[in-house]
Specification:
By secondary structure, this protein is α+β, with helices and mostly antiparallel strands. It has helices at about 30-40, 65-75, 85-95, 95-105, 110, 120-130, 135-145, 150-165, 170-185, 190-195, and strands at about 5-15, 15-20, 25-30, 45-55, 60-65. InterPro entries: DNA_helicase_Holl-junc_RuvA_I, Hlx-hairpin-Hlx_DNA-bd_motif, NA-bd_OB-fold, RuvA, RuvA_2-like, RuvA_C, RuvA_C_sf.
């Protein structure tokens, strides 16, 4: 099973790209926002998180820029009556937070404005997501946790950048900052620099 591909897009099709990874070209279906992003950076190397879909008739690859998009795609596929075409269309216009917000508010009218999602499908989406709200909420919590950076880490990073710019070696700086952080866990970047300089 393919879970990720790194390569350069060779050409674009309808809602899909052809990615050359090594010596093999893969056809990868992507949501609109991913398609547009890849078009803007045609010659760059990209890593796509892959959802490898198996059916009785064929295999298809679906590519996303972030793991959370792939997980959301799989979650939508698990809903009754929702296939890959509808899931891609939803993902082309909404992120996880937006989808959950509309479904919790029961806003089927807004969902019905998404291409391929009519009134009945929108109502079904609201019902199905709310039936599995706990799963979608866990996905959202996980996504927010991954993107949230502790303030202490940010201060340490700022201090490290400043000390490296002063000419200290990165390995020495990291060791000094570990000692500084242990001395003063809640220290600001400027305080960390002052403490770290004692160990450099």
């Amino acid at each position: 099973m393919i879970s990720g591909l790194r390569g350069i897009v060779q050409r674009f099709g309808a809602s899909r790209v052809y990615l050359l990874a090594g010596s093999v070209e893969y056809e990868v279906n992507v949501p609109l926002n991913v398609f547009e992003f890849l078009q803007q950076k045609k010659d760059a190397e990209h890593f796509l998180h892959i959802y490898h879909l198996f059916t009785s008739e064929e295999q298809r690859l679906y590519g996303f820029l972030h793991p959370s998009q792939r997980e959301l795609f799989g979650a939508i596929l698990s809903l009754k009556g929702f296939g890959s075409v509808l899931a891609l269309s939803v993902l082309s216009h909404l992120d996880l937070s937006g989808l959950l917000d509309l479904c919790e508010r029961g806003d089927a009218a807004a969902l019905s404005r998404i291409p391929r999602v009519g009134k009945k499908t929108a109502e079904s989406l609201v019902f199905e997501v709310n039936q599995k709200k706990e799963r979608f909420r866990k996905l959202l919590d996980s996504e927010e946790q991954k993107t949230k950076k502790p303030a202490a880490d940010e201060e340490t990073e700022l201090a490290e950048q400043a000390l490296v710019q002063l000419g200290y070696k990165e390995a020495q700086v990291q060791k000094a900052l570990l000692l500084a952080r242990s001395e003063s866990p809640g220290a600001s970047a400027s305080e960390l620099i002052r403490l770290a300089l004692r160990h450099l």
